[in-house]
Amino acid sequence: MKYTKENGVIAVDTNASPIHLAIAEVSKTGELLSYQTISLHHLLGLSQNSKDHQEWILAHQLIDLAIQKDKAIAIENLKKLKKGKRGDGRAELRKRLHQWNAKKFLQKLKRVARLKGVEVIEVNPAYTSVIGMLKYAPQLSIDKDTASAYVIGRRALGFKEDMPENYEKLLKDKAYLEFALKRYEEREKELRELIEKESNEYKGNALKSELRSVEDARKLLANLLQSLQSESSSCEGANGRNPEQGRVAKTTLQSVWQVLKVALLFPILGRVLPRDLSPLKPALVEGVWDRVRSRSVPFEAGGTVPIRDF
Predict the structure, then answer these.
(1) Which residue would you say has higher pLDDT here, 251 or 288?
(2) At 122, is the secondary structure helix, strand, or coil?
(3) Is 21 helix (H, G, I), strand (E, B) or coil?
(4) Total tally of structural domains belonging to the chain
(5) Interhelix angle 174-197/201-234, nearest 10 degrees
(6) Which domain holds residue 275?
(7) Omega before 18 cis (within 30°)?
(8) Residue 15 is part of a domain; what is its CATH number?
(9) Which residues make Cβ contacts (< 8 Å) with residue 271, sequence separation at least 6?
């Protein structure tokens, strides 16, 4: 291969809502150099032949960009594309996923790369979106999809993502976690009341889907609090020498990043997947989540983040 990750990568993240590609140029030392988004909305409604033609053009454009930047291409290893289920209340998303197949596009991208001598690095997609939205979106003032592409690029280069120090402290703050747990308990009660009143089947299914997510989040936080309480009790009389004191039990949680997402997004921003993640910056950089806990309402969330072109 002529163009390898020796000089960094062009990372590509595929997204269905809204349907687009997020592109991040990452240096060999792991810095974000430039980024852009490419809308794919024009592909919806095209015939299969026209869609294939446009995808081949786009694949060549991305590979030419990698050649211009003298970098490899980094993508997620997509074994299967997530698909909506009938009756889940997300008809628009299901329609987009049916009309555009990310896996087939990435196969085109890999084929063009092979023909033009560009290395393609496929990475494990686990938690790239979560790490991006919680760590780099607020830190660098970029949108969550660009942040996800950045994580893909860094992972392709072999970098590991450590948990920021203030986030680690937040996951040990019992007062904050109790506040977050209460927010989910209140939302769970609201959803149950809305479900009882909702007569539309699809809207009802969407509410039930959210309820399941809220229930899962509540259980995660409850388990974390119970774990911290157990560790605190086990440390009594140990004169502070217990090395496990204050740590999150590995057997309690599947992913600390997933728990952090549960603890941060809805309790602070009032939404599970907010578009604007900049309000997380005070918690990330300054560790000032106490002022969030003292509020009667969460931070306002919304707006857009401007995208900088290559």
Answers:
(1) 288
(2) strand
(3) strand
(4) 2
(5) 160
(6) 165-293
(7) yes
(8) 3.30.420.140
(9) 265, 301
Residues 22 and 132 in one domain: yes
Concatenating the DSSP letter of every residue in 152-164 gives HHHHHTT---PPP
Percent of the chain with pLDDT over 90: 60
Q: Based on the domain organization, do 96 and 66 belong to the same domain?
A: yes
Query: Is 301 a member of any domain?
Result: no
In the structure, what pLDDT confidence band is assigned to residue 310 with cuts at 50, 70 and 90? Answer: very low
Asked if 135 and 169 sit in the same domain, the reply is: no
Residue of 228 and 293 predicted with greater confidence: 228
DSSP state of 127: T
Is the CB of residue 116 less than 8 Å from the CB of residue 65?
A: no
pLDDT value, residue 242: 47
10 shares its domain with 147 = yes
pLDDT tops 60 at residue 91 = no
Question: Are the CB atoms for 22 and 146 separated by under 8 Å?
Answer: yes
Does some domain include residue 139? yes
Sequence-distant (6+) residues with CB within 8 A of 163 are 256, 257, 260
Q: So what's the pLDDT on residue 89?
A: 42
What residues contact 300, with CB distance under 8 A and at least 6 apart? 279
Instruction: Choose among 131, 20, 21, 23: nearest CA to 9.
Output: 23
**Could you tell me if 131 and 189 lie in one domain?**
no
Q: Which two tokens stand for residue 10?
A: 């062009």
Distance between CA atoms of residues 276 and 281, nearest Å = 11
Q: Which of left, alpha, beta for 158 (phi over 0: left; psi -120 to 50: alpha)?
A: left
Tens of pLDDT, residues 110-141: 999 999 999 999 999 989 999 999 999 999 99
**Structural domain contains residue 299:** no
Q: Are residues 204 and 119 in the same domain?
A: no
Is residue 120 one of the residues assigned to a domain? yes
